[in-house]
Design a protein that fits this description.
The complex is a heterodimer of chains A (about 210) and B (about 525). Chain A is mainly alpha-helical and about 210 residues long. Chain A has one domain. Chain A has helices at about 1-10, 10-20, 20-30, 35-55, 70-95, 100-110, 115-125, 135-160, 165-210. The longest helix of chain A is centred in the C-terminal third of the chain and has 47 residues, at about 165-210. The N and C termini of chain A lie far apart (about 70 Å). The mean pLDDT of chain A is about 90. Chain B is an alpha+beta fold. Chain B folds into three domains: about 50-410, TolB, C-terminal domain (Neuraminidase, 6 Propeller); about 430-490, no CATH class; about 505-530. In chain B, about 30% of the residues lie in helices and about 30% in strands. Chain B contains twelve helices and 29 strands. Chain B has a four-stranded antiparallel β-sheet with strand order 3-29-28-27. In chain B, helix 9 (about 445-460) runs antiparallel to helix 10 (about 465-470) and helix 10 packs antiparallel against helix 11. Mean pLDDT of chain B is about 80; it is low at about 25. The chains are: A mainly alpha (about 210), B alpha+beta (about 525).
Chain lengths: ~210, ~525
């Protein structure tokens, strides 16, 4: 019974895919989707990303298949998504957005579905393409990214009840926010590494001198 | 107690037996580790392609020798040029001394000596009346001329210093020191002279100046140029100099193209060329071997996955004293090239005495050799290689430090690689595939053998097998070609159409839905959203 409910909630993504404005509106206000279905969408996207890295046909796969770091691969797919959610939430709370973090997360998760589907298709199609016809593969991937971008944009437009212009500005700010967060994250890691190495070398010197 | 004693005895006996087993009877293992590069450009071990055959020392030949400088092999005879004494030594096919030319009777009937000669080459007479007639050409370096004599050492012709105004710097006459010389098949003369970096001096058959030829390009990035403007003269001298490098040796192939080697390539651009893919123009600008056509343009094929410019790693060498210590990046520099059969050529590296062999397309076939060091040199190491030549499939290398000639002979593995490359060159793909597979049995690190096998399979129409080979070494270009034909075979021509139809359907529905979405946005989106 519960499974059937989950399926219903999850498959609402297909409706959103084709009717983004109606879809996102009902997603928030009519509670047609759910948090757990959103989790499912995200997990599916991550799985397809991993598959894309490992299973894409040899011609279009530059990755070293024997070097598989699960944290790096999963993080590579999941981190941009969660950064988008956090950054978007940060800016929309400042700019009178109506959505909570949960709303942002659910809408963004449902927006992933077309991207996931197109990537899955791309994996299959890659086996039937040569380098000459490889432009089709690139095209497919391009469509996936553009579609994802539009879905995320429409999603936040509806969730926060923004006008087109305001939505565009928020989207740009969100992207800038992601960059700032990445920058701060790297800076933080760098500083921590420096501190750790400083302290450890200090201890090392002291041990040499006094022990 | 007694039991323990027996135990200890047994263990000791076993140890003795083990130690005895470790004393392997002396074998003729060469004093170098042969290696190869894998697709990622990482050093991998390899079977030895060549082994040490013979070492010809002056004592063994019964000659005096002081600084051997060059060698040429013609009609199974070996001509060695002695720079210190100015002698030419002629050896027969069994490496026995035939004759040593110590002096010749010059143009005015007086006996003359060569002074510090550095280059020797074979000159072939043109025209049917002179067919099969050859001369020796020697660079009489310190006398500033090129001498031609017949194969027995009788003087026939002299090419004096050409009238080159460029050579006379600011009124002061600069000396002309021809180092290496070569002829093309119109008997034009190409001279690599000391201190001339405009390329080779091309002389007409009568000895008059034709042109400068095939100058190595200069590469200096704009930032360095800008720096030089601001620095004082003394400071700018500490920067790496960007004068174009000179050719260290020149050889002509049977088609009349000139191979030139460069011993000190510009390390910066060289390092950039090491990470390029086949077809990248960077490769030719930073090359240490060139093949020049009649217009002086480099036409050497560089289609190998591994660039045909020697080692893929550069070593840092520390120079200067303890106070002004600095490091110099040492890249492979070739002192000579030997042309084998069917477009195969071998180059010798000046610092490490390594010999790199490539096929006509520039694919790496094998690497062997070792320079030894000053403290230790043994049979098979070449301290200062100055000349390399093929004699059949044997490779002869001249060592200037020890005045010796080392003869390397191919191993079973080496001759197999050569045979496979030659068969492929001759278009015998089926036969070459079989040989490549034998090569792989002996050295699975030899990735070019996979490509060779794959190409041969591809030509034979076994596309699926060819794809496997190309995939093994991540050769996407050839893989794609094989895949295309494989699909054509499996699905017919319709496959591409099927893919396109599917894609058009997918994209079409998306566009249709997008249009509907946009309409909905225009109709009630505005009302709802705003």
């Amino acid at each position: 019974m519960k499974l059937k409910e989950l399926w219903k909630e999850w498959s609402y993504g297909f409706y959103i895919m084709t009717h983004p404005f109606d879809g996102f509106w009902d997603l928030k206000h009519e509670k047609r989707g759910s948090l757990r279905a959103a989790h499912l969408h995200v997990i599916l996207m991550v799985i397809v990303s991993v598959c894309q890295r490992q299973l894409t046909a040899f011609l279009f796969n530059q990755n070293d298949l024997l070097q598989f770091n699960p944290f790096a691969v999963v993080g590579n797919a999941f981190l941009p998504f969660i950064l988008w959610c956090v950054s978007n939430w940060c800016f929309t709370t400042l700019m009178d957005g109506e959505g909570t973090f949960k709303d942002v997360y659910i809408a963004s998760a449902y927006a992933l579905l077309p991207f996931t589907i197109i990537n899955a298709i791309a994996i299959v199609v890659s086996y039937g393409l040569t380098q000459e016809t490889g432009a089709l593969y690139t095209l497919l991937q391009g469509i996936g990214v553009v579609y994802l971008g539009l879905m995320l944009f429409f999603g936040q437009l509806v969730t926060h009840q923004y006008s087109f212009g305001k939505g565009l500005i928020t989207a740009l700010l969100t992207v800038a926010g992601i960059m700032v967060m990445i920058y701060l994250g790297l800076l933080f890691c760098r500083v921590i590494t420096n501190i750790v190495s400083f302290v450890s070398s200090l201890i090392y010197e002291l041990r040499i001198r006094f022990v | 107690m007694k039991k323990n004693f027996v135990k200890i005895l047994v263990v000791m006996l076993m140890l003795v037996a083990l130690a005895a087993g470790m004393v392997i009877p002396a074998s003729a293992e060469p004093p170098y580790e042969s290696y190869y590069y894998n697709v990622q450009g990482v050093w991998v071990g390899s079977a030895d392609a060549y082994t040490v055959g013979e070492l010809l020392t002056p004592a063994k030949l019964g000659i005096k020798a002081n600084q051997l400088a060059d060698m040429v092999v013609h009609d199974n005879k070996i001509f060695l040029l002695d720079q210190g004494n100015g002698y030419i030594t002629i050896l027969d096919e069994n490496y026995k001394l035939i004759k040593q030319i110590t002096s010749y009777v010059g143009v005015d009937g007086q006996p003359e000596n060569l002074s510090g000669p550095q280059g020797i080459e074979i000159y072939e007479y043109l025209g049917s009346e002179n067919a099969g007639r050859y001369d020796l050409v020697v660079c009489d370096t310190n006398n500033g001329r090129v001498i031609r004599m017949d194969l027995d050492g009788n003087f026939t012709h002299v090419y004096p210093k050409p009238d080159i105004s460029m050579l006379n710097l600011e009124g002061e006459e600069k000396s002309y020191k021809p180092k290496k010389v070569v002829f093309d098949n119109t008997n034009r003369l190409y001279v690599a002279a000391d201190g001339i970096n405009q390329g080779l001096i091309c002389l007409d058959p009568d000895g008059s100046l034709n042109s400068f030829f095939g100058a190595p390009e200069v590469t200096a990035d704009p930032i360095t140029r800008l720096w030089r403007k601001f620095l004082s003269l003394a400071a700018s001298k500490t920067l790496l100099s960007y004068t174009p490098t000179e050719y260290s040796n020149v050889v002509a192939d049977e088609k009349g193209f000139i191979y030139g080697t460069i011993a000190t390539p510009d390390s910066e651009s060289f390092m950039e060329a090491l990470v390029t893919l086949p077809g990248d123009p960077l490769r030719s600008t930073a090359a240490n071997i060139r093949r020049l056509n009649a217009a002086g343009v480099d036409i050497l094929k560089r289609m190998g996955y591994i660039p045909n410019c020697g080692d893929l790693t550069a070593s840092e060498v520390t120079m200067g004293g303890t106070i002004n210590e600095f490091t110099v990046v040492e890249t492979t520099g070739f002192t000579d090239v030997a042309l084998g059969k069917d477009g195969i050529y071998s180059c010798v590296d000046r610092t490490f005495g390594r010999i790199f062999t490539y096929d006509e397309d520039g694919n790496l076939l094998f690497i062997f050799g070792n320079g030894g060091n000053n403290e230790c040199s043994q049979l098979g190491t070449v301290r200062t290689p100055v000349a390399i030549s093929y004699r059949g499939n044997d490779i002869l290398v001249v060592d200037q430090t020890f005045n010796s000639v080392t003869v390397f002979t191919p191993t079973e593995y080496g001759s197999m690689v050569i045979e496979a490359a030659q068969l492929y060159y001759a278009g015998e793909y089926e036969k070459s595939e079989a040989v490549w597979q034998d090569v792989l049995v002996r050295n699975s690190n030899m990735f070019y053998a996979y490509i060779g096998t794959g190409k041969a399979l591809y030509r034979n129409g076994e596309y699926a097998e060819a794809m496997k080979c190309f995939r093994e070494v991540e050769n996407r270009e050839n893989y794609s070609k094989a895949l295309e034909l494989y699909m054509k075979e499996a699905f017919g021509n319709s496959f591409a159409i099927i893919v396109i139809v599917i894609l058009v359907l997918v994209i079409g529905t998306k566009v249709y839905k997008g249009v509907k979405k946009f309409r909905a946005f225009m109709r009630d989106g505005v009302k709802k959203v705003l």
